[in-house]
Specification:
eight-stranded antiparallel beta sheet, 17 helices, about 650 residues, disordered N terminus, alpha+beta, five-stranded antiparallel beta sheet
């Protein structure tokens, strides 16, 4: 018993000694500091005199004056922060839970208990986002904001403990597994970004000692310095990381390598804006959510460069491209400020989008169209165009207006995308009179173990998008070629061809007739045979009715704002109900109606489907028929049809090729 007690005491003394050693201030503590930086004269003098504690105290006073005496810099955060109003209840909840080591690492999963002795390697759900986002330590800023509001030192004391605990337990090189999560460059960049306002708030606490400052600065130096040589190879991650390296260099210019971080970030962004943005202004991942994020990145980087007096390092073409990106986003924005959920996108609340447009408008104050969206239509000019083709990216918008009562279809027929793109060319969302009738599938989750990937892959299937399949298989290639795009007063037309399957192309033509409804012509071109399916998805609350005798489905909304989808050719097509789901938020899904018009392709001849997508008012769907006239020749792309709607005829005669 005596020996056991003695052993415990020895371990405790060793731990205390190690802790003191970690916080002992030596000459090595200042290795990250540019002692010649203007304002650090007292620090340099003390270091040269080997008065290291005095030097750290002087450095802390410098940062208290620089950071702690003014409003924290929240400019780089995705969501703006207001420190003047009442503390948000969710922020307080997050901070209070953090005191108990209950951390919310991914919003959809809630809080997990990481233990009194924090287990930074805990993986409670085998979704990679849960563990990656653990190391973004998103609860640290809520702890700081709560401290700022309440002045309760328990938040500062706990944050100091957690910061030192994270540094101690997650050293670079601990293991390949831990480096994969704790030191993935995106997470590193997220930390160096959020630490700036967090440090600015906590620095006035008595728990923020000179010794702790040296731990913070050396850790910050290591993390920021890690980024330039470890940027992601491509995509939005590379943009985030470069922009945040620039921000780190602008925020802590006193650190030895700050100028290199700034230069690295600027160089990467100048290069990537040319690689990642198509000529029409769309970011090449072809996901509206990440397109908006890319605009934010490029815009914030420019503002960060301005802060460092380096805005001239960006050529004029840089800002011009960012402005073009913002205008491209205008074209794919519905009246409620949402965008189609193509790729890994989700719905976002209007207030968030308004803040984004406001930030973009500040960068481009002369652009009246961006100002219009930034002010919710109160200032600026409403766009003076309707239907629009972003032809390089393959985002096509048919519209008859910009307000809530408009009819708007947004369709994707794109080149190959990056990680966030899906095998979905031809899919679309349709907005009519305040309602999105056909939301795209969304993504549900990103990556993880076998079960997580099974869930992700369900939402990525071609058949759960509004497009054509062969034998219900995923299209093999997404490389659409625009064949025709024309607009006029009473008819807008898009035709594109996608090499969806081996020996089978999908050619889709969309006709926006009289700025009211849509006729969709689908052609399966090639020698491959099998079951062709034309799929459509509907909103979860549509209470849809299926009429299999006449191959039509119609919604049943009580407000009379309804939609009919009917396959008119071939007549022997079989209408089937399918499993339908939609994910508006990460980790959340809803069941919804889904349908397919199926017909067999038994030979090398081309196969054809003609459908009508018809919005109407009332509780009775219109009666629609189609007559083929003498000049009609689908194979040659010549339409000569008469559409009859409740007894009224509409001739459709045009060449789909030009």
């Amino acid at each position: 018993m005596y020996l056991r007690s003695l052993l415990i005491l020895c371990v405790l003394y060793l731990q205390i000694g190690a802790s003191k050693a970690q916080n002992t201030i030596t000459k090595e503590s200042f290795k990250a500091i540019n002692l010649n930086y203007q304002g650090l004269e007292k620090v340099k003098t003390a270091v040269e005199a080997a008065k290291y504690e005095d030097a750290a105290a002087a450095l802390l006073q410098y940062y208290k004056t620089k950071l702690g005496s003014r409003n924290p810099d929240f400019s780089n955060l995705e969501v703006p922060v207001d420190t003047t109003g009442t503390l948000d209840a969710k922020i307080l909840e997050t901070a209070d839970n953090a005191l108990k080591h209950l951390f919310k690492t991914q919003e959809s999963y809630g809080f997990f208990d990481f233990g009194k002795n924090i287990n930074w390697q805990l993986w409670p759900v085998k979704d990679n986002e849960v563990r990656w986002q653990l190391h973004r330590v998103k609860w640290w800023l809520p702890m700081a904001l709560t401290y700022h509001s309440t002045k309760d030192e328990k938040y500062a004391k706990e944050w100091v403990f957690q910061f030192e605990d994270w540094v101690k337990k997650n050293p670079l090189g601990l293991s390949a597994d831990n480096d994969r999560f704790a030191w993935r460059p995106l997470e590193v960049s997220d930390r160096v970004q959020s630490l700036v306002p967090t440090i600015s708030i906590f620095i006035n606490s008595p728990h923020f000692t000179p010794a702790f400052l040296m731990v913070v600065l050396n850790s910050y130096q290591q993390q920021a310095d890690y980024l330039p040589s470890n940027y992601a190879a491509e995509g939005n991650h590379r943009l985030f990381e470069a922009q945040r390296a620039l921000f780190a260099g602008a925020s802590f210019p006193e650190l030895l390598d700050a100028s290199e971080w700034r230069k690295s970030g600027i160089d990467v962004l100048n290069s990537e804006i040319k690689k990642q943005v198509y000529a029409d202004g769309v970011q090449f991942e072809l996901s509206p959510v990440y397109h908006a994020a890319a605009i934010d990145i490029f815009a914030k980087a420019f503002k960060g460069a301005q802060k460092a007096g380096l805005e001239n390092e960006f050529p004029a073409s840089y800002k011009q491209t960012v402005e073009k990106m913002a205008l491209a986003f205008v074209n794919i924005t519905f009246p409620n400020y949402n965008q189609p959920m193509f790729g890994d996108s989700w719905w976002t609340n209007k207030e968030f989008r308004l803040r984004q447009f406001t930030a973009w408008s500040e960068l481009f104050p002369e652009n009246q169209f961006i100002k219009y969206f930034a002010t919710d239509g109160k200032k600026g000019d409403k766009p003076n165009w309707f239907s629009n083709a972003l032809s390089n990216a393959g985002f096509y918008t048919f519209r008859n207006g910009w307000d809530n009562s408009s009819t708007i279809m947004m369709l994707k027929a794109s080149p190959p995308g990056e990680f966030h793109a899906q095998p979905d060319n031809g899919t679309f969302e349709l907005w009519v009179n305040g309602r999105n009738f056909t939301p795209d599938a969304g993504c549900f989750v990103y990556s993880g173990d076998k079960e997580i990937m099974k869930q992700r892959n369900w939402f990525r299937q071609t058949r759960v998008h509004s497009t054509m399949t062969l034998n219900n298989q995923n299209m093999l290639i997404t490389k659409a070629q625009q064949n025709k795009w024309t607009t006029s007063k009473d008819l807008d037309v898009l035709t594109y061809t996608n090499p969806s399957y081996t020996n089978l192309d999908h050619r889709r033509s969309v006709l926006f007739v009289d700025k009211k409804y849509f006729v969709i012509v689908d052609q399966a071109i090639g020698s491959e045979t099998g079951t062709l399916g034309i799929h459509y998805q509907l909103k979860e609350d549509s209470n849809s009715q299926f009429d299999k005798k006449t191959n039509k489905v119609f919604t049943n909304y009580s407000d009379g704002n309804n939609l009919l989808i009917q396959c008119l050719i071939p007549q022997k097509t079989e209408l089937k109900e399918e499993e339908g789901k939609v994910s508006y938020q990460y980790g959340k899904e809803l069941s919804r109606p889904a349908l397919v018009f199926e017909n067999g392709k038994t030979n090398s001849n081309n196969a054809f489907f003609i459908s009508v997508v018809y919005p109407y008012t009332g509780n009775k769907a219109p009666k629609i028929t189609l007559t083929e006239k003498k000049g009609n020749n689908y194979a040659k792309g010549m339409l000569d049809l008469v559409l009859t709607i409740d007894g009224k005829s509409k001739p459709l005669k045009l060449d789909l090729n030009k």
